[in-house]
Queue: 3 jobs
Job 1
Amino acid sequence: MYHRHLKRQRCMRGPRHGEGFGHDHERGHWGRRGHRHGGGLRRMFDHGDLKFVVLALIAEQPRHGYEIIKEIEHRVGGAYAPSPGVIYPLLTMLEEMGLAQLSASEGAKKLYAITEQGQAELASNKANVDALFARIASARETFSSGRSPQIVRAMENLKVALRLRMERGPLTEAQLQDVAAAIDAAAQAIERS
């Protein structure tokens, strides 16, 4: 009974972690995989959507895989970043389908550009592509009106630094005072901002 319940939950969620739309650098924060929609968490991209996003980005200008990841993350306002384990195989697939081509290579970096066939694929799916980029813009607006990615990152850095320091062993009285003073100074600076 328990196993059937888990299987049903997996089926209702759609593809498993990393299938079709990519995991997100193990970020489990709100909005990292998508954005809140109707009270639930909605996936940023449905199966096959990322292909059109990548095609549109390399249609704008040839890009490396890493640049594509960062551009998607930027356009979504930090709410989502596809993993390299999804983007690089997707670029290879687009190349094999004749939709993208290797434009140049700098060592391990491969620069991808769109082909005429890729342009035709984008044109024939223009309504879908436009809807995808509207959803991306909406996610950016929703996420940026909430918590700033820079602040979330800084908060996580502080948590990690504290945890790592505490794991190294007990603090002396002077160290305790220094840590508390640093946290208090940060809190006061934030209050003044």
Job 2
Amino acid sequence: MESTLMPSPALFNEKASGGFLGERERSLCVECKGTKMLCAKTRCPLLVKYYAAVRQKRSIDSTSIFGSAPGVFVGRYGYPAVSVGPLLPPIVGDTAELDTPEMWIGKTIDDIVGMRSALVRGLSTVNVKKPEKSEKLVTDLQLLSMADKPIDTSAEFLRKPSGRIELDDEVQPFGPSAPLKKMEVGNFRLDDRIEKAFYDKDLMARDAVLGLYHDSTLVTRIQRAFSMGAFGAKKTRRLVPTRQSITAVDSIIGETLVEEVKRLPLINEYRVFESWQLDNRFIVLMAPEPWSYELVEAWYPDTIWNPAGRDIMVISDHELSGGRTTYAKIGGCYYAARLATSEYLLKEKRQAKVVILREAHSGYIMPVGVWNVRENVRNALRGAYNSFNSLEAALTHIQGRFDIPIKRWTLNSFVLKDSRFQKRLTDF
């Protein structure tokens, strides 16, 4: 997709925005990321401004589409009566890449917008607590969510699909939408692993997720089926909004892997990994100490969550060996990065203290979903690392890779402060 779809960062300077954000509101944006409405507005003013800046795609000039549907979407507004429907491109063939973030490392924002804007979302209201009232639709969407490849699908809409590309910090973008009149699915074959979990009505959802993960099922596929209520004891199955299903699956897997990691011996060196994608710089620091974990994000001015700021906004969340009992204020990114980190350590059969540092620079002008964090951390950990004999040597190396001074990272990091300044018995 041509780059004119991307608004200039200048659109978000204070003059251009008409002062639509106050000082207090700007300080909350990085924490909120358009989802918690901490500014007390009914809609995120940043996303409203972004939508106004993005050139609208031409409406699809038909009330029907035939294509190969790679995914489904369950909305969250109006819960328990939410909008559900297929993500359907007017393309027949192997469209799996359009809804498989594991395949997106190396793509540009234009690439991602181009792929995702081709997905038309059909809208039909379903009560997640009474899905039997929409049984055929729910059954067809479950089939789409469990298929081993995209299913040829025809859909009729009450009007021509139109509208902006939808943005969310948790969920990958998608294109225009329209109320769904009816849909029909063609021939399909289910993923054998997911099908087995679906028909086991005594298998708990958590056990289904873990079993599928250990059977090498893509996390995205597990999340998709989870959102359509494909797992769990028969009487407890529910449709789950897509954004919640993404974080739930990341959390279940990561939390379980961490418990295994805690029983492993420590690494014997300091390791530094990195991945740079979409003008995001990720560095993963591992230290030879018992498990604790932290994600620290630094958002530069002119990024989506710090558009009119004059300073870099930093936010962090952490857990020590006892884990955490509250939802991370940093959001789904926290759990996505923890999953990627714990699976690496388990593969290495080692334990470590982990700090992930993220610099989001001005080229990251739109949210593309938490997959960006999960897959970047995975990408970093697949590559070679630099090893060091001391924390200070590792931090000196990191300083050469980042713009933000190590002092500021440390001030905003509980885990780094603990490692640098807390005296231990071995120090005496």
Job 3
Amino acid sequence: MYKLINKVLIIFSGLIIVGLVLIYGLYSGYIRFNYPSLTEYPIQGIDVSHHQNEINWQQLDKERVRFVFIKATEGSDFKDNSFTANWRHAGEQGFVVGAYHFFTFCRSGEEQAINFIETVPKVANMLPPVIDLEYGGNCQLTTGKEQVLAEIAILIERLEVFYQKKPILYVTQEFFDDFLVGKFEQNPLWIRNIYRRPALKDRRPWMFWQYANRGRLSGIETVVDLNTFNGTKEEFETLIKN
């Protein structure tokens, strides 16, 4: 009996160690759920903000990072203090750049459009503007669904008129299910799913996929979001030229 108990304890201890190693690997970004190949997804990239601190853009692998979405603004008055430097340095290193705005429930679409347009320059061969739609880090939701959709519609319209590109909607699965099923179907989608390939309720196609939120790349000291473009190199070139 003693030998059996000892054996069970050894196995149990081993499982605990394996579990702790797995948890550490996932948290630190050295292990992921998704590993999309460059064969299937030849255009891959990242999204960054001030949370990535100072980035060594020269060290980034240009095969793994073809595009960079950079946080510009949030709500009606917040401007990311790393946006200008990230935008300039990424462009200097030849990365295709785009900017995103974190939509907040507590400010109007008009106010938020003004904030973004004041911050993000309109330049040739840039990615369409992105509207980040999610619950995490947002204001408390105090209005109904239709009012939220109305403010998003205003923001979409203002950005499309100014940048002459249909804004991309970055969404979590939860936000999409609650607000966007059957809505804004002409706008490309960028889906966050760090566990598996996205599959939407209405089978709507998606253009970008954020497949990891704790990736590791040479040139960035912190973890970073990893993304893919769902299309060919030719389709990507068309997207940035439109």
